[in-house]
């Protein structure tokens, strides 16, 4: 094991035996030291290089479930987009009006919908921010209270 940000390429492993001894797997990858698949320390020399873009282990990108969910969402988005495209082109072909006039009408309807939904989005975002600020303030106050009690205890003894 190196020290002071040196590049660590070695792997230390204590293999789990059949007797149930403790398993501790430690290795370095792309500037991060991993212990049992979780990042515990960074090597700044490697983290500021381009190797950080290939680091996957120990991060959220290592989760298979996340990738599967993203794949499902991308498929749903692609199918929805394709259906909308087909429906819109069918509507334009079926309509007796000029295609430009039909597009203008569709754009106006889309603009009206986006304008009407903006209020709902603002309301939901306001609720979210309110909850986050409330949690942060509670943690901040609890931390300050504990710090104040600790200082009072130290001063009084």
UniProtKB/TrEMBL annotation:
Annotated keywords: Membrane, Transmembrane, Transmembrane helix
Listed transmembrane segments: 71-93, 113-133
Domain of life where this protein originates: Eukaryota
Stated name of the protein: Uncharacterized protein
Native source species: Vitrella brassicaformis
